[in-house]
Each structure stands twice: as structure tokens, then as C-alpha cells.
Write a structure and sequence with these properties.
The structure holds two protein chains of two kinds. Chain A is built from one helix and 55 strands. By secondary structure, chain A is mostly beta strands. Chain B is mainly beta. Chain B has one domain (31-202, 237-382). The longest helix of chain B is centred in the N-terminal third of the chain and has 26 residues, at 2-27. The chains are: A mainly beta, B mainly beta.
């Protein structure tokens, strides 16, 4: 009897198992077609091997693109919101768990209209007129993928060229017709005689250097010498490089500004219809290269080094503080009065794994270090008395609203500006450094906003906010009525890569231009699986012209091939930029900036910290650079603190060897 | 006849081979666990052979060499083919990664919410449920993300409490339990309906309770209560229990909750949906796990650097086990219910550590150092 019962039990288990294996999830339709705005009940059932529906099964429906096709969880009600093809996954939980999918094609709405864009009031014979066509469907979606057929009623007056360009040939009238899917839009064009008899073209310089900006002034005049103010003038250039191994290249803007990359002779052209003028300019070698010499090193090779700050102490000597990364929460203090003999003089260890940032007050008495990885997860910052850096003493710890970790800080006029969990920054009054108190905060309200860094200069906070770009915030300058307690944002600039990691302002006194240089941080090459090989970064520096605060414009950039930007500093028209595996790059940013600064030969010098005894040997990964009293100090992730010195400027016509 | 003899000898040989195989398997059992190093951006695959724990492989995780991305929650797919990892520190949102257990290489990823933490795949739905801890955000309710791990698409977010953490799914895969660390609540989510089905305030706070105006508070023991700090914007509630983990028992219809703030394990009866027992523990219990045989509950005591083992039938704690370092974090128990694997964070520059504890003997039997701040931990397999 016992054996029989066991047999029955095993048999029932087997049958159950077999039944489970025979179940399948059937969808009513594997392919469903919908219209935008339509709601459809999607259906699925679990059936056994005989096709019989199994009751009491739950279903989960979801769309792989819920912003285009919304599907309500267990009910399977789908609503189409945007054209395209999407998958709906159907899951029936339980044992066995079953899955299937339904392909939903949401039909695009019919085309509703075509827009020609802005058309100039006067259309002169002999010019080209590019159209900016916009196709919109009845659901309100723009349809850039659709090709519009353009025709002209009079090809002798206006001809159609590829890429939606109109060739304006001669005086007369023409009707341009745009057709797509039975929708027709027309544009009447009245071509008038081109009154431009000639173009008077001038350049502000005939001879300059590569990277210098030649500003063109083009005056279109009629046969009576009257200016035609709305003449659509196009600028272009041709050139011949002095070096046969270098291609002539450069940049010319639609406003008529030109900068040469390679030294050479360049012909700058201005055209409007049949009228044309040109000027020839010469771009000489920039010739600003200088020798750079390694001076000293304060080695840190048992842990990673992060940021640095160099300052003149209250005793008149020079000091530096460096942080450490992914280690034991130590900050090191150095005497750098003799840059060739950098001396470790003290250290402070706090409950953290990373001291990412270090800053010192303007009077050299108070340092602030950031904390990440505290054992109690209350990170925040630590305020240190550095009036005697040989005996740095912790004054206070502060973690209110900063528990998520402080990645970067800045000290400005008795206030610390501290990032909180990568979301915002607080302004913290440290007039009494033993009792810091939050007085204000700044946070964006954009979806998914984040922040990486904040830098203060002249009462303006420049925060780097990744995809939200740089934010200029008045924290005491007065430009927008802001104070530390009431930060007021007044300008911003974002760029498509979303990699904005650091920012530094720079005003060129000679040109009056106000730039903010924005640095990327990117690591597209991934990590070494073993974590002990040299790293490689990407990203570069973007030069934004903020002279017109309401209309900031990206005008130039500085790249180092196969390396990536990190922290940087500007002093006396020279940019000192850490480029991780590319070391320190010293760049001439004098004058107006336009185009590719590296190709223009603006790099003065570079130095790469290679240390065979480094934390990772011979693996430069430079974090930051700071000029101080004629030397360049820089911290390196794998090797600690370094100093270098630029050789003096070599007078023209003097060989480098002679300048030693 | 010869054939018969050969066949008989062959059968004997097969039997002998089987016996050897079984005896070898019984004596040489290897256990594998994955452990995250939150301040090193590493995951360690650790083998324990019954005597010694060794790091088999260290897997670098994340994509930013110069930023700590904080690997936090980790779990294995029900079929053992994949492991899932939440990287908590994003810009601002964290990311869930899917790795192959065969190659330990990334096979997919998806962005989740703020500070994604503990996670698990339901064997009923095949979907992954991950709490968005939002550890350092404002004191507002956060969510549990529901992810299809086949497609690596986030398909829903279910709002729960303030700082949701410590989530585990019932043995049948039908219910997900998590706690709101600062709101002091236990949440039950139906994995199939993707909705909160029940919530329980663990501080004893009644829902929708009117303001306490006019009451005499002078004789109250405020240390046993959650605290609501009123601001102009909203009341900020700080749970006294401060629950940090919830683990459903495989068979007895109970969920056990680590009361990190009240130094106790709370036993919640799922049928009654009320607290039915309290086990006074060491300081600041943080994570807990129940042995697959249902006999023991093992809890990490973060505040005292100890591990507590509770005999659930007797309701008694075995002698506490001192961990190798301070800041005891996570626990995961082997499928044979013999060993508890404990992650220990350490402080500052100290390495993280995995401790192996023999549950019945309540004794640490092995230990191995790994990357800093060992945290998330999951038992993978025995072989």
C-alpha cells in the first residue's frame, strides 16, 4: 500500500510537471496595427497542449517604449502615442513562467504641412538660398525623415539644387512648390536685380600668427556706392601652407572672422552673387613653444592622489595640500617653498575613503577638505586650521545636508560652497569655522539634474552641471542681486555631449572678451579589468564666449588626441590644463579665441609625470594643475605632487639653445 | 558466460565509481559568493572550500576610473546564469548592470532611480525589483523599480516609503517586501500586479492620525518613537525603528525586519499583518537572511561588528560571532543552510572582509580580505 501511494504521488508530480511543460502563452495577434490616439485591448491566454485556456493566470503587459506606446500593466490596454514599431512583452507569472511578445505598428499620421522657414525680404539674383523645410504630420510630430519634392515654376529664375537649396538666377517671379503625400505648399519668390556692384573687403590685419583672428569687414555697395545693408555675403578661404607637409587649414565664420591653423598665405573671400572680393593675409608661425623643466616631486605612491591647492602661508612660505582617492581619507600638507625640494610636513586623516577636493581660504588660514566613503555614511566636509601647515589641526566636521558625499568645494569670502550628493551646492558660512552654518543653496530644477563642480570668482559661482552645462550664479558680485544666502542664476550654456565637468572664467583685457572655459570628463575606453594598468580619458576644453551673457557662443576648443581633460587654471593669458594620461598642457590663450587652439600651435609646452615607482608605474593620470609664483604645480593620480617650470619666453629670431 | 562476468564486473566498477564520486562530492564542497566593494568599485567572486576562503576573481565595475560609482546591491538570476548589480552613485541616477556568471562580463544595463540598492528577480514573474534607496535625498517617498532583465528595460516604478531598502521576495516569487528606512514602514508589493498591496508602520504610528495637540507629552518615552521634524515645507519623519532589511521566511508565513534604530528583529505575521514578536539584538542590526531550511535567521550587527544567529524554533540567539572588522554589513546563507557569508565594511583605508560563519557552531571558520567597504553580498552556488 505504501509503495502504491508513493507511486501515485510520483505519478501525480510527473503529470503536473508534464502539464506545466505543455503550457504555452498565446497572444491573440502577434502583429497589431494601431493609429495614433487609438486604444486597443491586447489579449493573451495561457493554454494547455490541447489548446484549452488555463484559468486563474495573471498577465503582465509592458511596452518596450512606453513614451510612444503606453500599455497598462495587467490589463493589456494599449494606447498609441507616436508612430513607429514597438514590442509589447507579455508575461504570465507562475510555474511555469511564460513569455510572449506582440509587435505593434503605430501608423504615422498623414502629413499636415510643410514649412519653408524664414525667407529674406529681398531676394537678389545670383545668390543661393538654402531652405529650412519642416514637415509636420497631423499628430503634430515633425517628420524629418520624409523627403519633400521641390519644383520651380520657372527654372530660369529659380532652380532647385540638392539639399533643399534654391539657386536664384535672374530677376523675375517663380513659384516654388513643395509636395509630399498629396500635401502641397507654395512659396512665391520675387527675384529682384542684384544691386551689388562690388564688395569692399578689408581685414583688420594683413599679417598675424596662426590662431590669431583676422576680422573681415565686407561692404556691399551698388553702382552709386551706396551700401546694401541686407546683402547676403558668404565668406570662404583658400590657402597655401608654408610647410609642404602641412595642409592649409583654418576656420572662417559667417560673420567674417578667420583663424589659420597652419602658417601660410590665405586668400579670404567675400561673395554675393557675381560680386566678389578677396584679401590675402599671412599667418606666420605662432612660435610660442617654450621649454618646460621638471623641478621636483613629492611622491605619493601607496595610494591615489586627487586634487591640489597651493598657497602662500601666513608665514610667507609656500605650501600645498593634496587629497587622496579611494584610500584612507588622508590629506597631505607640503612645504613647496623650494619647488625642487617638496617636503611632506603633515597629514590629516579623516573617516573617509576619498578626499576628492581640497581648498584653502584667501588668507591662508583655513583649509576645507571633502569627504566621501565615511564609515557611517555621513560624509560632508572637514575644516582644518592651516595657519601652521606643519601642524594642521581639524577645527570642525560638518555633514548637515551633505551626507551623500561632497565631491567638490570652494572657499570664497568666509563661505564654503560645497556640493551635496552631486545634486546641488550649499553656501556655508565659516566666519566661525568651529560652527559652520548653511546660509543658502543652489539647485537646478531640470529633470535628472546633477552637478560636478563649483568655482567662485569675483562673486560669481561657475557650476559645472554635466548635461545642464555651466551655470553662472551671482553669490555676491551684484550683477543679479545675489548673495551667498540668495544665489541668483543669470546665465548658462550647455553643449550636446553633456560632459561638463569643470569651468574657469577668463577675461581677455586686450579684446574685452569674456570667456568661460568648460572642461569635459569622459572615459569612453572603459576600465582595465585588473585595475592596475594605465587609464585613458577623452573629452576636451570648450571655449565659450560669454561677452554677451544672453547669447553665449562656443567659439573655440582645445583637444589633446587620445587624452582627456580634467581640472585646469588660467593665469596671465595662459591656460594650465591637466589632461589625465596627457599630463599638463600649457596653452597660450591670449587674444581673441576661435577654432582649434591646438592645431593653431597655441600649445606652449607639455609635461607628463611618469614615475616608475608610481602607484601604477609609468601611468600618468594628471588630476589638476596650478601656477604659483612662477612654477607649475600639478597632482597626479598615480604619483603625487609635482612641480615644473616654464623656460623664459624666447625672443624672436633667437634659437632655443641660445636661450638656455 | 564471459559476457555475464564482464557485465557484472562493469556494474561493480560503475557502482564503485559512483560511490567515489559521491564521497568526493560530500567531502569537497565548494561555495561561491559575490561581494561588492562599494568604495573600490569592485566585485569579488569568493570561493570557500569548507576551510579556506579565497578570492577567485576581482571584477572592476563602473565606467569612471576617477569617480566612485558605488556597487551596492547584488543578486543572482534564478537560473544562476547572471548576476545583477546596482551602481548607486550616478549623475544623478544609478544604474543596474547585468553580468554573465560564466564570463563576469557586462551583458546589459539600464538607468534606474536615485541610489538603487537591494534587488532580486522574482521566480514567478522573471522581473527584477530594485529599491531606489535615495539615501541622501530629501525625505520624500521613493520607489521600487521593476525591470525586465531579459530586455534590461525599466517597466515601472512603484512608490513606497522614504529611503526604501532591504528588499527580498517571497519563496514563491509572488510578493516583494521592502522597508522605508526613514518612514519606518514595511511594504508588500504584489510582483504580478506591480502594486503595493499592504504597508505596515513599524513604529506603531497609525495612518492618518490627527495632530497631537493638547496632549501631555511630558511622560512619553520619546526614544521609542519616531520623530517628525516640522519644517515649513513638510513634516520630516525619522523612524525610531529605522528598518533596514526585510526577509520573508521560506515557509512559516513571517517576514523578519531588521530594526536598525531599535536594536531588534521584528517578526511580522503575514496573515495578521502585524508585529507578533520582537527579538532584542546587538547594536544596529542591518541586514538579515533566513537559512533555506527555515531554522535560522542570521543578522548583521553593524554597530557592534558582530553577527547574530537566531534559532527561530526556540526564539533564542546563539552566541554572537565577532566579525573580523568593524561595520558588519551584509549576509547571505548557503543553499545547504550550513554557512552564513558576512560582508564587513571596515573603516577608511582598511580592506573589506568576507567572514564565513558555521551557523550551527556559531563560529567564524574563514575570512578573506577584499576591496574597501564590502557591502552587497549574494551566495551563488555550491559545486
Amino acid at each position: 500500500m505504501k509503495k502504491f501511494l508513493i507511486f501515485v504521488f510520483v505519478l501525480s508530480l510527473s503529470v503536473g510537471l508534464l502539464q506545466g511543460q505543455d503550457l504555452s502563452l498565446k497572444v491573440k495577434s502577434e502583429k497589431v496595427s494601431m493609429k495614433i490616439g487609438q486604444t486597443v485591448q491586447l489579449e493573451a491566454t495561457v493554454v494547455d497542449a490541447a489548446g484549452k485556456k488555463i484559468a486563474d493566470r495573471d498577465y503582465i503587459f509592458y511596452s518596450t517604449n512606453s513614451s510612444a506606446l503606453s500599455v497598462v500593466d495587467s490589463t493589456g490596454v494599449a494606447t498609441a502615442m507616436r508612430h513607429g514599431e514597438y514590442d509589447v512583452i507579455v508575461i504570465s507569472p507562475g510555474a511555469p513562467q511564460l513569455r510572449s511578445n506582440i509587435t505593434v505598428t503605430v501608423q504615422a499620421a498623414a502629413i499636415a504641412k510643410v514649412d519653408f522657414g524664414v525667407i529674406p525680404k529681398n531676394i537678389y539674383a545670383g545668390i543661393n538660398l538654402p531652405l529650412k523645410l519642416t514637415v509636420t504630420d497631423k499628430a503634430g510630430f515633425e517628420r524629418p525623415e520624409r523627403i519633400v519634392e521641390l519644383t520651380s515654376s520657372n527654372e530660369d529664375v529659380v532652380a532647385i539644387a540638392p539639399f533643399d537649396k534654391l539657386i536664384i538666377k535672374e530677376k523675375g517671379k517663380a513659384k516654388i512648390t513643395a509636395k509630399i503625400d498629396g500635401v502641397t505648399e507654395t512659396l512665391d519668390i520675387n527675384v529682384i536685380d542684384n544691386p551689388i556692384a562690388k564688395i569692399l573687403l578689408k581685414s583688420d590685419m594683413v599679417e598675424g600668427r596662426s590662431g590669431d583672428v583676422f576680422t573681415l569687414t565686407a561692404l556691399a555697395v551698388d553702382k552709386n556706392g551706396n551700401e546694401i545693408k541686407d546683402a547676403p555675403i558668404n565668406y570662404s578661404f583658400t590657402g597655401e601652407s608654408f610647410d609642404v607637409s602641412a595642409a592649409p587649414s583654418g576656420i572662417i565664420t559667417k560673420e567674417g572672422k578667420f583663424a589659420a591653423d597652419a602658417p601660410g598665405l590665405y586668400v579670404l573671400n567675400a561673395t554675393c552673387g557675381s560680386a566678389a572680393a578677396s584679401v590675402t593675409v599671412q599667418a606666420n608661425s605662432r612660435n610660442i613653444s617654450r621649454k618646460i623643466d621638471l623641478v621636483g616631486q613629492g611622491s605619493v605612491n601607496n595610494k591615489h592622489t586627487s586634487d591640489l591647492w597651493v598657497w602662500e602661508g601666513v608665514d610667507g612660505k609656500d605650501y600645498a595640500v593634496t587629497g587622496t582617492w579611494g584610500a584612507d581619507g588622508t590629506a597631505y600638507f607640503w612645504d613647496v617653498t623650494d619647488p625642487a625640494g617638496i617636503e611632506l610636513i603633515d597629514s590629516v586623516k579623516v573617516d573617509a575613503r576619498t578626499v576628492n577636493d581640497v581648498k584653502v581660504s584667501e588668507d591662508g588660514r583655513v583649509a576645507v577638505i571633502s569627504r566621501e566613503g565615511a564609515s557611517n555614511r555621513k560624509n560632508g566636509l572637514v575644516i582644518i586650521d592651516v595657519s601652521n601647515p606643519r601642524d594642521a589641526k581639524v577645527i570642525s566636521e560638518f555633514s548637515e545636508n551633505l551626507t551623500g558625499g561632497v565631491h567638490n568645494v570652494f572657499i570664497y569670502k568666509n563661505h564654503v560652497y560645497a556640493l551635496s550628493a552631486g545634486r546641488k551646492y550649499y553656501s556655508i558660512n565659516i566666519e566661525d569655522p568651529a560652527n559652520p552654518r548653511i546660509v543658502g543653496e543652489f539647485e537646478l530644477d531640470t529633470p535628472g539634474h546633477s552637478i560636478h563642480d563649483v568655482w567662485i570668482h569675483d562673486g560669481i559661482a561657475y557650476s559645472s552641471n554635466w548635461s545642464d552645462g555651466v551655470q553662472l550664479v551671482d553669490v555676491g558680485n551684484g550683477i543679479a542681486g545675489g548673495t551667498p544666502a540668495n544665489p541668483v542664476q543669470f546665465a548658462s550654456y550647455a553643449y550636446p555631449s553633456g560632459s561638463n565637468h569643470a569651468a574657469f572664467p577668463y577675461k581677455d583685457e586686450k579684446t574685452g572678451k569674456f570667456y568661460v572655459i568648460l572642461g569635459d570628463e569622459e572615459f569612453p575606453y572603459g576600465l582595465d579589468p585588473d585595475g592596475r594598468k594605465p587609464g585613458r580619458a577623452a573629452g576636451f576644453l570648450h571655449v565659450i564666449d560669454f561677452t554677451d551673457l544672453k547669447n553665449p557662443k562656443e567659439v573655440a576648443w582645445f583637444q589633446v588626441p587620445f587624452a582627456g581633460s580634467h581640472n585646469f587654471w588660467i593665469e596671465d593669458d595662459i591656460l594650465y590644463a591637466a589632461f589625465y594620461n596627457g599630463g599638463v598642457r600649457v596653452v597660450d590663450i591670449s587674444g581673441e579665441l576661435l577654432g582649434d587652439l591646438n592645431r593653431q600651435g597655441r600649445e606652449i609646452a607639455w609635461i607628463v609625470p611618469e614615475d616608475p615607482d608610481g602607484y601604477v608605474a609609468n601611468a600618468p593620470f594628471t588630476w589638476g594643475a596650478q601656477p604659483h609664483k612662477g612654477h607649475i604645480f600639478y597632482s597626479d593620480w598615480n604619483s603625487g605632487l609635482w612641480s615644473a617650470k616654464l623656460a623664459p619666453v624666447v625672443p624672436n629670431n633667437t634659437k632655443l639653445e641660445e636661450a638656455k | 558466460m564471459t559476457q555475464f562476468i564482464l557485465k557484472r564486473n562493469l556494474n561493480k566498477s560503475l557502482l564503485l565509481l559512483l560511490c567515489i564520486t559521491f564521497s568526493f562530492a560530500a567531502s569537497a564542497q565548494d561555495y561561491y559568493v559575490y561581494v561588492t566593494a562599494e568604495s573600490e568599485d569592485e566585485v569579488a567572486l569568493i570561493k570557500f572550500d569548507g576551510k579556506k576562503a579565497t578570492i577567485e576573481k576581482t571584477i572592476q565595475v563602473g565606467i569612471w576610473p576617477a569617480e566612485i560609482e558605488g556597487p551596492h546591491g547584488i543578486n543572482i538570476s534564478p537560473d544562476g546564469k547572471y548576476w545583477y548589480l546596482s551602481l548607486a552613485h550616478g549623475i544623478p541616477y544609478g544604474t543596474l548592470y547585468k553580468y554573465s556568471t560564466e564570463t563576469n562580463e557586462v551583458v546589459g544595463s539600464v538607468k534606474l532611480g536615485l541610489f538603487p540598492a537591494s534587488l532580486q528577480v522574482s521566480k514567478a514573474t522573471g522581473l527584477l525589483y530594485c529599491v531606489n534607496f535615495d539615501l541622501h535625498g530629501d525625505m520624500v517617498p521613493s520607489t521600487v523599480s521593476v525591470v525586465d532583465p531579459e530586455e534590461m528595460i525599466e517597466i515601472d516604478r512603484i512608490e513606497t516609503g522614504v529611503m526604501p531598502h532591504g528588499s527580498r521576495i517571497s519563496a514563491d516569487g509572488m510578493y516583494h517586501y521592502s522597508v522605508g528606512m526613514m518612514s519606518g514602514e514595511l511594504f508588500e508589493i504584489s510582483t504580478t500586479k506591480m502594486k503595493v498591496t499592504r504597508k505596515l508602520n513599524l513604529d506603531g504610528k497609525m495612518e492618518e492620525k490627527p495632530a497631537m495637540g493638547g496632549m501631555d507629552h511630558s511622560k512619553m518615552d520619546h526614544s521609542k518613537m519616531g520623530h517628525a521634524m516640522m519644517t515649513e515645507a513638510a513634516p520630516m519623519y525619522h523612524s525610531a525603528v529605522k528598518p533596514t532589511w526585510a526577509i520573508p521566511h521560506p515557509t512559516n508565513g513571517k517576514v523578519y525586519v531588521a530594526g536598525n534604530g531599535s536594536d531588534e528583529i521584528l517578526e511580522v505575521d503575514l496573515e495578521k499583518w502585524e508585529i507578533t514578536n520582537r527579538f532584542k539584538t546587538g547594536k544596529a542590526p542591518y541586514n538579515c537572511d533566513v537559512s533555506p531550511d527555515g531554522k535560522y535567521l542570521v543578522a548583521t550587527y553593524k554597530g557592534s561588528g558582530e553577527t547574530g544567529i537566531w534559532d527561530l524554533e526556540k526564539g533564542e540567539e546563539l552566541p554572537r560571532v565577532k566579525n573580523t572588522r568593524k561595520v558588519t554589513h551584509g549576509v547571505s546563507i548557503s543553499s545547504d543552510s550550513k554557512y552564513a557569508f558576512i560582508s564587513v565594511e571596515g573603516i577608511g583605508g582598511e580592506p573589506g572582509t568576507l567572514d564565513v560563519i558555521d551557523i550551527q557552531k556559531a563560529k567564524k571558520v574563514a575570512s578573506v580580505d577584499m576591496g574597501k567597504q564590502a557591502g552587497g553580498i549574494i551566495f551563488w552556488k555550491m559545486e
